[in-house]
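Q: What would this chain look like folded?
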Amino acid sequence: MMNILVINSGSSSIKFKLFSFPEEKLILKGMVDRVGSADAYFTFSMDKKEEKNIVGAEDHHKAFSIVLGRIHQENLAIAAIGHRFVHGGKYSTAMLISPEVKDYLKTTFDLAPLHNPYHYEGIKSCEDLFPKIPQVAVFDTAYYAQLPEHVYLYGLPYKYYLKYGIRKYGFHGTSHNYICLETEKILGREMKDLRIISCHLGNGSSLTATRNCKAVETSMGFTPLEGLLMGTRSGDLDPAAVLYIMVKEELSPSQADSLLNRQSGIYGISGISNDMREILREMKEGNDRAKLAFKVYCHRIKKYIGAYYAILEGLDALVFTAGIGENAPLIREEVCRGLKHLGLVLDRKKNEKNQPGIISDPESKAKILVIPTNEELMIARLVEEKAG
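A: My prediction, written as structure tokens:
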């Protein structure tokens, strides 16, 4: 038996899960939220019991001490630790942490400044507290490392790709990878035979086209800003529009970054919220801006489905996952509306039950599914391969 701890560090939170392998059993989970504030709190769940306490987590190192100390109280041996990294740069697979890997990871901070520095802090804290336990970095970008050059390059001078690594990297890869494996199990076919479009829809949203067990396209790019409309991110737009606004509003680069990443998307269009649940409630009350945000959001998803259908040269499965994808029947219905010509026909009754599984009509040539994602389990599997 091998216990694997999975850690996902954010700027103000640390989430964790402990799995037992080879049975892939979830033993415990929890999080420290509001790290760095006086009211930071710690939640811990095990054996159907949950505790929640205010803790003095003034920084990430202290928060990690709380997490690992609490796990130690349960006398559970940890065989390996896996860390989620949003951006892996050059790495095409999970990596055992070594001095060389750590040195390279520090160079990725500029590529994911809101994520990677905190993931790195997790590695350092675990080294200090458990120096003999092997650690593995698992990258959201790794699933897309094999994209061909004509897919990942932008229409910019080639020198910027060579000099700065400006290219499509893709994100949410761990989730999309997990979803494809689960689709194979449900449909009972070899992955190499399946053409899948997976829709990871949450506050951050992305689509990925997979064929022959490999990603062939994805909606996010150099950063998670590209692609679909999201909670507060703009998604695709004309770059000249940003330059125009910057001149007119006299915005600095950091202000423009905030505009695109924190003030746009569903929130920017609706003027209400970045939470789709609130948008759906406002729609029922007749709010026109909420209706508009809903329509733009669904239109973008449908546009990408059509494009990826062409790239895949057909489709076997369309899969919805993540917070919105798993829990918003109205979104799924609107996205699938009018796609019969692509072989996609939704069963409205199955969709409205809002349960995992196949929700397509029997006459649908391609299956439509809802599959809950489990990024932590996928990370644990990759850690087990590297450190097992």
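The CA atoms of residues 194 and 316 lie 6 Å apart.
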